[in-house]
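Feature request disguised as a bug: please show the residue count (116) next to TraR/DksA C4-type zinc finger protein in the output. Example input:
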Amino acid sequence: MTPEQRDRFRERLETQRQEYLDSRMAARESTQPVQLDQASVGRLSRLDAMQGQAMAKEAQRRRDVQLQRIELALRRIDSGEYGFCNACEEEIALRRLESDPAAALCIACASRQEQE
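Example output, currently without the count:
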């Protein structure tokens, strides 16, 4: 991988990190506790709100996982380990990194891990 390619991946990862941080801030309100006052909110509306809250929390959890993957990829860039598989230490194909710049495993190791 050339230094220019590495810089391009760093830029993409930093942009993605900022997008995830921005979406985290925007989603805070939807993960707030649901008000249980039946006088102001009907039972079905409350259940609907609770379901929406659960979905928002799961989306937030997924964003946090992806943000962690991005942070780890940026650390690998800083340490010079970016682009190499964490399992077999072989180079990760550029097409895979183009698709997912936070990928830490080559296709073979990722496939093996999914089958386990």
